[in-house]
Amino acid sequence: MTKNYYDILGVDKKATKEDVKKAFRKLAQKHHPDKGGDEAKFKEITEAYSVLSDDKRRREYDSYGQTFAGGGGQGYGGFDPSQFSGFGQGGVEFDFSDLFEGFGDIFGGRGGGRRAKRGRDISMDVEVSFKESILGGTRSVLITKVSKCDTCEGNGAKPGTEMESCKTCNGAGRMHETRNSPLGAFTSVRTCPSCEGQGTVPKEECDACKGRGVMRKEEEIKISIPEGIDGGEMIRMPGMGEAIKGGASGDLYVKVHVKPHAVYKKEGLNLVMQMPVKLTDALLGTTTTIVTIDEKKLEVKIPPLTEAQQTLRLRGKGVSIDGTSGDLLIRLTATLPKKISGKAKKAIEDLKSEGL
Questions:
Q1: What's the CA gap between 328 and 317, in Å, rounded?
Q2: Helix or strand holding residue 164 (H, E)
């Protein structure tokens, strides 16, 4: 019976090699016998992938169909796993490590060591003042983490000594491993544990880090606090996480906590403050002085006949972020005296007679 390899993988005839690979990986994970899948189905999708992933075989299949002999007298219809890489019965080795990257131990190894090595991400908390959160600033903190060795500069070699080819992997940085499965032997590739994928090892190890290239130590970190940051927000510092030999360092994530202010609160880009106003000042108007968040004195005019709970808006005096500034909102609250003298009482009665 003629098989349609495109239908088996669920792809269109115009599918790219990457589309074919993605389709196969998804189906292989579902039907692999080691995961309780259908062995016959797994063999069928592997057969389809072995054809559609190879440009020459795919062209022959598209032109002549499944029964094309492929130049060897045995057509694709008589699929023989040992003819295709990865099934190794005297056949060609096929590196499944890239194809099955992320499948964990199903196919042995983890992506064959081809994924770029990267140090661990770490996180910390820092508390800043309200003023720092509005105006921004720089905070220096001490943190203990795995960092590059200062003595060997991360290569693990004793200063003044040379590097030599790794004897475990013969300088390749990777090692091939073969695992048996119901369909034959799968070959995977993993990072060499001796040289950690570098292909070279030091002739003499660094005394400080014992050849590891990294060591745990205390380090001073300078954190730039951006203007207008809110409590609970995270600051990402690329490359400031933990180091790893032969790879990039991870990232540092700093969670910011903001101390409350005695006067000001933040609402978006606006700064808000409460200002108590005497009854006479609310009626007659006045000028008062406030201290802004950057500790500058600012005169504020309160107009006559100001109503209780009225808000004064000072434009551009709020939070500034990327050239955009909010406003300073002053919410007025009328205050009443706890005691009234006879003279004040008479004055109030006179006001009352005036209809006020």
A1: 5
A2: strand 163-165
Query: Taking the CB of residue 117, how many other CB atoms lie within 10 A of it?
Result: 14
User: 68 falls in which pLDDT band (50, 70, 90)?
Assistant: very low
What is this structure's pTM?
0.59
The structure tokens 């992933």 sit at 53
Amino acid letter at 170? N
182: Cβ–Cβ under 8 A, 6 or more apart, which residues? 33, 34, 39
Contact, 120 vs 240, CB < 8 A?
no
Q: Which of helix, strand or coil describes residue 225?
A: strand
What's residue 281's pLDDT? 84
The two tokens of residue 355 are: 């209809």
Q: How far is CA 226 from CA 161, 230, 262, 266, 345, in A?
A: 44, 10, 22, 15, 54
What whole-number distance in Å separates Cα of residue 39 and Cα of residue 46?
10
Nearest-10 crossing angle of helices 39-52, 17-31: 170
Tokens representing 151 are 């003595």
Distance of alpha carbon 102 from alpha carbon 218, whole angstroms: 34
Q: What is the DSSP letter of 113?
A: G
Which one, of 28, 43, 130, 128, lies nearest residue 79 by Cα?
43
Which pLDDT band holds residue 38 (cuts at 50, 70, 90)?
confident
